[in-house]
Amino acid sequence: MGSHVSRRQLLAAGAGAGLYAMLPFARAQSKSLVVATFPGTWNEAHRNLLAPYFRKRTGASVTQSIQLATEQIAKLEAAKGGRPPFDVAILDEPQVFDAAKQGLIDEYPAARSPNFKDLFPVYQDKWGPKISLQVIGIGYNPNKIKTPPKSYDDLLNPAYKGRVGLTALNSQLGMAFLAELNRIKGGTETNFDPAFAALRALLPNVGAVAANLGAYATLWQQEQVDIAPYNFNFVQTLKAKGVPVEFVVPDTGLVGWTTSLHLVKNAVEPDLAVQYIDSHLAADMQSEMEKPPYDIIPTNSKVPLAGAITQTVAKTPADLAKIRGFDWTKINPQRTALIERFNREIKL
Amino acid sequence: MASATRDEWPLALPLAALFIVCFVAPFCVLLALSLHADAQARAFSVAQYAKFFGDTFNLSILWSTLWLAIKATLVCLLFGYPIAWVCSRAPARWQSVLVFVVVLPILTSVVVRTFAWIVILGREGVLNHALRALHVIDQPVPLLFTETGVIAVLAQVQMPLMVLPLFATLSRIDRNLGDASAALGAGAWRTFFRITLPLSTPGLVAGCILVFSACATAFVTQTLIGGARLVYMPLHIYQQAIGANNWPFAAAISVVFTIAVMIVIYALNRVGRTGKAYGDAR
Amino acid sequence: MATLASPAANVAAPPPRTQSATWDVRSQRIVFGTLTAIAIVFLIAPTIIVLLTSFTATESLRFPPQGYSLRWYKALLDADQMQAAAWNSLVVAVWTTLACVVLGTAGALGIARSASRFARIADVMFMSPLILPALAFGFAALVYIHLLGFHPSIPLLIVGHVIVCVPFVLRTTIAALAQVDPALFDASASLGAGRALTFRRVTLPLIGRGVGAGAFLAFMASFDNVPVSLFLADERTEVLPIHLWQQIDTNLDVRTAAISGVIIIVTILLMVLAERFAGLSRQLAR
After folding, report:
1. Which domain covers residue C201, as residue numbers?
2. I need a surface site. Which of B128, B191, B272, C18 has the fewest CB within 10 A?
3. At C97, which CATH number?
């Protein structure tokens, strides 16, 4: 029994030390900033480019939470009054109105952000700087579809039965596509019936509906879908990974929206948050992000347009300004109803 | 005999206290929350339940969830019973190996297991490639994002919950009964259906209950394999709770879901005519 | 220990008397054997496929992988966030297991040897987390926490995990207790040992393996838990399963396959250890 006891004592000592290290309470660690980011190109660009840049600048690390803009709004709303689950929000144009109205974000302290003034004036928003423009068109698999599609109507081609992809409506891609479809079919921002009629016509062709853009990328990578509405830079990112996909501007033209970063109200690390956002505005950072595989459209006036962007989207900043958008203040109030209607339509 | 053994029930008090504070109370709070008309109004009402039951959309989600879990349980039973049966008759060394094989999936992260199936079920995945190579099909069969795919993955992921109780029960069946049956002239199948199967009912019911419950609430598997078009109760609860921030409604859905699962389990219990619902571990 | 008849002694069926009897036995063996074989493949194939896919040299998740390399395992070394999430999961799992073992063993001792109504009710209550939808409990816990004015944190997550993991310890411990002859406790008492001494010297060694197996299951259940962590772990207290789920749902990165490979290998090692020290397969068979 003697050796038995001493082995037990040793184990106990080791376990005790291990447990001490694991005390879930006070744990001193190096500074960390919790930020939200979008799935797909965005979280990769932020992880691979922005986080190291930020770390070099401040010495702090970044914890990413990948969620859609609608999810961020919901989480911030749920945590209102207390500590927010993340300090930096990334929102699409529609959500910015809601976030400001509901008191979820602070006005952006431009004075503390040296790179802010380098942005084009149209992107210097008081609630948060615009970091990019996202545009949508049609993505297709050139190996499976030999003639490039020309318009969204091509998605209805019976030859593509079961091969069309869609995203759920809580993703901005889904919402923008529906709004664009609505516009093409003669609807207005308050009447979405033409869009849903077109959606119903499209359903037999739909192979899968992805919950978000990242899941969408999976569908493409696994070749579950061959043709779908898609973001420009997401297509580029997939292409760089060797997935067979090409982007085409439909004959009805490109539509887009701006994406911006925001300082969340009651942020735990507001100074780090501002520095993080400011880093994203820096000319050198934006020109890195403009390169493949991210092809993120820059908003800093010092960064010239280059690469795939000039070939497909716009050659000059003036061209960018011409890309059509939507009146989100009219569409936003219907969002919940639209999402619910969409979910019912697509449910198998 | 029993009197000499001191009744030790006070030892269970700490755990009981924890459960009352941290398990029973939250459910009571949930129930209370579900009886609110909306997040702000303090008035009690059954509006949320009316909303739930008044809409065929919600009812179809509830029904498809229960039905999905039943189907997956049947698949588990079909494949799980033979494994348990073989395992109970195997020599001790092989038993350990078989139990290992059965238990390993359930101990590997559910996310990992489900992810493996994405690779297998995809259009260009292992299964489709194999079927095409064997010339069983010409075009890839959609398996991912279909209910069949979800059932298959659920069955694999939850199979150990069926096998282990069955194995325990089958090991305990007196082998002499089988011998006696054979000696009296009954064939192997007759012995199985008349002796073995009825005697294994406690384990069978325990396994079915555990698997049914696990399949009904298997959030990760349902969403990763089912996609956005196949909505089951867990996703519905999550969407309403976290996505739409509609806590009273989400609470109502949770309560309805819990009660529905309890009803099915009660029915299973009655079918098995056993008093205890789980892990007949004694 | 005479309850489990040794299978080896009874493995052969009595000699068949007629031709049809032979066919009967054989057909049963074929049917069950085939179904078992399919089931085993069904059980193991996904694990093996993930393992093999994690060694792919390319960026896509195809099976069979086009080229082999360790690059994705190396990439894990840079995956800071994944490591942080894994550490959180580990911390939570360790504390959960400790609490489960202490509370669960006491609970098992309390209700297994008692015939009182309290014991019966407690038994049902303690086991119900295994049967009631864990997702409903997770959400209920979140609502409860908010009502009390807290927000999600690691200690609260631990409590949530304890509730859903303690049934495992209870089950195996109660089963182990059932194997113990009550006369041993009587003997110990009649020899003058107090309750604490009886527990330490008689009960604990006898049920030790059962507790160990339960602890192992509780640990794995906590590490792998999703439904409770979904609500009680937020962005600042990320745990590994949620992080992985997010990654799979948004990225389908091959690093997910690599971390899966690590989890599989570690699980196998832990299982071998649990088998060696606690006789896991025996404990699960009770």
Report:
1. 80-284
2. C18
3. 1.10.3720.10
What is the count of structural domains for chain C? 1
User: Which among C59, C95, C252 has the least Cβ separation from residue A24?
Assistant: C95
Q: Enumerate chain A positions whose Cβ falls within 8 A of a Cβ in B.
A: 70-71, 74-75, 77-78, 162, 168, 170, 207-211, 215, 218, 222-224, 336, 343-344, 346-348
For residue B66, the domain's CATH number is: 1.10.3720.10
pLDDT of residue C175: 83
C66 touches chain A (CB under 8 A): no
Contact C59 A242 (CB under 8 A): yes
H-run or E-run covering A66: strand A61-66
Counting as contact any 3 or more CB pairs under 8 A, the partners of C are A, B
Q: What span, in angstroms and rounded, lies between the C-alpha atoms of A94 and A87? A: 20
**Token pair 């009981």: residue:** B16
Domain region containing B72: 46-281
* Closest by Cα among A15, B105, A29, A79 to C88: A29
Please state the pTM of the whole predicted model: 0.83
Task: Specify if C50 maps to a domain.
Answer: no
Note whether residue B102 is domain-resident: yes
SS3 C142: helix
CB C65 within 8 A of CB C57: yes
Q: Which residues contact C32 (CB under 8 A, 6 or more apart)?
A: B82, B85, B86
Q: What is the largest CA-CA distance in chain C?
A: 75
Q: Which of A79, A218, A242 sits opposite C252 (nearest CB)?
A: A218
User: Which ipTM did the prediction report?
Assistant: 0.83
Within-domain flag for C276: yes
Residue C58 lies in a domain: no
> Is C284 within 8 Å of B100 when comparing Cβ atoms?
no
Which residue in the set A61, A83, A211 is minimally distant from C249, CB to CB?
A211
Residuewise pLDDT in 10s, chain B (282 residues) = 344 445 677 888 899 999 999 999 999 999 998 888 776 656 777 888 888 888 889 999 999 999 999 999 999 999 999 999 888 888 878 888 888 888 887 777 777 777 778 778 877 777 887 888 888 777 777 788 889 999 999 998 888 888 888 888 888 787 888 788 878 887 778 888 878 888 888 888 888 999 999 999 998 888 888 887 888 999 899 888 887 778 889 999 999 999 999 999 989 888 776 433 333 333
Beta bridge partners of A227: A140, A164
With respect to residue B211, please indicate whether it lies within any of the assigned structural domains. yes
Q: Considering only residues 129 to 158 of chain A, which have any Cβ-Cβ distance to chain C shorter than 8 Å? A: none
Give A-chain residues touching C247 at CB under 8 angstroms: 66
User: Tell me: the pLDDT tens digits for A263-285?
Assistant: 999 999 999 999 999 999 999 99
Question: Residue A348 and residue B230: Cβ atoms within 8 Å?
Answer: yes
Looking up tokens 């089958």, which residue turns up?
A: B170
In a domain, C57, yes or no: no
Residue in A24, A39, A65 nearest the CB of C158: A24
A242 burial (CB, 10 Å; 0-12 / 13-18 / 19+) is: exposed
What span, in angstroms and rounded, lies between the C-alpha atoms of C30 and C49?
A: 27
- The number of distinct structural domains making up chain B is 1
Asked, for residue B215, whether it belongs to a domain, the answer is yes
Chain C residues close to B16, C-beta within 8 Å? 107, 122, 125-126
